[in-house]
Task: inverse folding
């Protein structure tokens, strides 16, 4: 029997719409339970902001396991637009993709920036970039299209929480912000429980429509991340992302709070990825991967970075690769990034005298390498300020000559350091004398001050060091 009437409404706005898993790239995926009202809230954004209508043709690009797929599907369902589903073969071939979108007159697509950089699109009305940061060069290259760059939204806030719109041919800022909160959402930049002022970095927190129910079967994590909104009704999601307000009311995304590593843009470098990894010595180091149409030496990159960054922020390991690997969802695939081993870029030249031999051996020991030549650069082999301190201490211990730490940053090869040692070899080595063994020792001025302050206020925690044992 056929029915002409609409079916009876059985769902409520706070019923579960779907459960989607997120953060799988960290190795610890968690199910996010999203309710209907969060999805329905997207309609106003689509129709009033992006002006999607029944004449639009929306491309389905994302995996069904990625929440961008929710945006693609509902963009059609909530506005009357038509959605076109492409095959994996078309998606994986930029030329086939260009032909498909032109032939089917696709007008709107949500694309990862890394993918958009590989294609030349002409017939689109609107492009939305999401999943990773969009750079100004990419926006400029597509300035003939209305671009919503850096559509920002954790899965926990139902697809999108903030957006930045670039209108055709308008000037492009040097760094693309994530924009302003979308309709019915509020964003707070916080330091603990305190709001941050303009330009002050803090944790990005989101409240309003679309906050998920929580994590499936993870009540402790849900309570930690989904907290009572201190500034209004409902709950607030603490994203773990670092951001700051800009003077014009936009928000600049600064990265994850627990993974703050960056690299400055350099001419002719088209893409890059920077991650924190543990090297062969067990130390946590910064690894940088960069892409360019021409060969750019690590030395040149390091030299350019040293003009604007302190030494401790310059990646210890760098490598030029053909392209930054991405997951199917368009995010950087950190597991697919190649290992970088410290290696000499110059032709190996053996030590010519005893001093150079000692310095080369110290280099190898500090950097955990088998052998080092006299022209190999300490910092290009994975050295940094902490290892440089070990270097000067070992040199003083084994040669009797004291080398200032700052000299290592100027004279970074065994050959150059050996010359400094030979010049200073006439100086007598003065080791720090060992203190006489006593039952007790007089306190220093600093220790006396600390003791006095503690006695004045015994309950003070000013000198308490807190730590979290994750073991």
Result:
């Amino acid at each position: 029997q056929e029915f002409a009437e609409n079916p009876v409404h059985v769902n409520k706005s706070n019923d579960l719409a779907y459960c989607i898993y997120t953060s799988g790239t960290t190795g610890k995926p968690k199910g996010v339970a999203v309710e209907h009202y969060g999805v329905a809230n997207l309609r106003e954004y689509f129709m009033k902001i992006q002006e999607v209508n029944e004449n639009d043709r929306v491309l389905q690009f994302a995996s069904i396991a990625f929440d961008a797929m929710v945006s693609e599907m509902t963009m059609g369902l909530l506005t009357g637009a038509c959605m076109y589903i492409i095959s994996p073969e078309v998606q994986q071939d930029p030329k086939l993709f260009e032909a498909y979108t032109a032939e089917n007159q696709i007008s709107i697509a949500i694309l990862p920036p890394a993918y958009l950089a590989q294609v030349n699109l002409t017939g689109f009305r609107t492009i939305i970039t999401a999943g990773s940061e969009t750079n100004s060069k990419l926006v400029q290259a597509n300035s003939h299209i209305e671009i919503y760059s850096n559509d920002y939204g954790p899965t926990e806030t139902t697809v999108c929480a903030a957006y930045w719109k670039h209108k055709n041919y308008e000037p492009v800022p040097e760094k693309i912000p994530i924009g302003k909160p979308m309709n019915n959402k509020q964003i707070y930049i916080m330091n603990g429980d305190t709001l941050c002022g303009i330009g002050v970095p803090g944790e990005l927190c989101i409240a309003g429509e679309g906050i998920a129910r929580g994590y499936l079967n993870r009540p402790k994590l849900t309570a930690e991340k989904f907290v009572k909104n201190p500034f209004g009704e409902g709950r607030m999601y603490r994203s773990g992302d670092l951001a700051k307000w800009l003077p014009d009311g936009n928000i600049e995304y600064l990265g994850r709070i627990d993974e703050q590593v960056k690299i400055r843009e350099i001419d002719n470098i088209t893409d890059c990825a920077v991650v924190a990894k543990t090297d062969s010595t067990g130390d946590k180091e910064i690894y940088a991967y960069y892409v360019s149409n021409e060969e750019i030496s690590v030395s040149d990159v390091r030299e350019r970075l040293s003009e604007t960054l302190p030494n401790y922020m310059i990646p210890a390991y760098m490598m030029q690769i053909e392209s930054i690997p991405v997951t199917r969802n368009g995010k950087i695939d950190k597991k697919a990034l190649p290992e970088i081993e410290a290696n000499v870029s110059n032709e190996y030249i053996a030590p010519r005298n005893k001093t150079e031999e000692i310095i080369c051996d110290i280099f190898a020991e500090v950097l955990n390498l088998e052998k080092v030549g006299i022209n190999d650069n300490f910092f290009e082999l994975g050295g940094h300020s902490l290892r440089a301190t070990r270097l000067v201490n070992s040199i003083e211990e084994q040669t009797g000559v004291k080398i200032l730490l700052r000299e290592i940053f100027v004279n970074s090869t065994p050959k150059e350091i050996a010359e400094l040692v030979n010049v200073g070899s006439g100086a007598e080595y003065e080791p720090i004398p060992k203190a006489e063994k006593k039952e007790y020792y007089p306190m220093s001025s600093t220790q006396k001050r600390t003791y006095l302050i503690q006695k004045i206020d015994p309950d003070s925690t000013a000198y308490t060091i807190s730590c979290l044992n994750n073991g």
In short: The two ends are 63 Å apart (CA to CA).
